[in-house]
Amino acid sequence: MLEDDQKRLLGEFVRAHRERLVPDQPSGRRRTPGLRREELAARAGISATWCAWIEQARDVQASPHALGRLAKALQLTRAERAYMFDLAGRRDPEGTPHSDVEHAPPSMRAMVVAIDHPAYGLDRFWNACAWNPAAEELFIGWLGDGHQRNLLRYIFLDPASRVLIPDWEDRARRVLAEFRADFSHSLHDAEMNTLLVTLRQQSPLFAKAWGEQTVLDREGGLRAFSHPVRGRLAYQQHTFRPSDRPDHKLVILIPAG
Questions:
Q1: HSE, side-chain direction, 13 A CA sphere, residue 41
Q2: Where in the chain is the domain with CATH 1.10.260.40?
Q3: Percent of the chain at pLDDT above 70?
């Protein structure tokens, strides 16, 4: 059930954008600017009564697909569409970009190159999609040619991660709990589920921790490493999401102390 403020804001938003639209065939003098509700409903393939109830802030159970048709009829931008879905309390079925996920967005590539400290980018599967030489030198066995690019596979399946990460089991559980928060956006993605099946089958710890249903926000903080060449290292970790691809994340490690 939506809060009254949400319903009011949703109604005001839909009405304002309806009134900005140009009728297909303007004829004579119109009492209201933009499209009539009936015209918007026809464009969206939905009920005119349903449109009216939304604008009147009444209780309306809008399906994600109906909202998607309304968004297209209103000619919303990506940001406007996301805003409308948030107000309606629904998840946009087209909200997570699925194309070119193996490529880092330009903003991320630019940041990784500009930073001297270890920095890397993760796509929605938590594959490394960009990294700098400092990150490649730190994460032996993960980054670089011929290495395992998926962070979860590296942590749970590669013995090198147990050497590099002193508190390996605690860190592995923490990473998995953070990943679960992202997984909820790709519940029906075949590639994502294939990754989970593989990890559950090949890692007893992953299978056990996944069954515990722990979900955590991705937070920064002190990260220690036992590097085979450089010895004990400590960094403060910071994570950012690029505005042009919010399903990706940029991770930066700043030397501590």
A1: 13
A2: 4-88
A3: 91
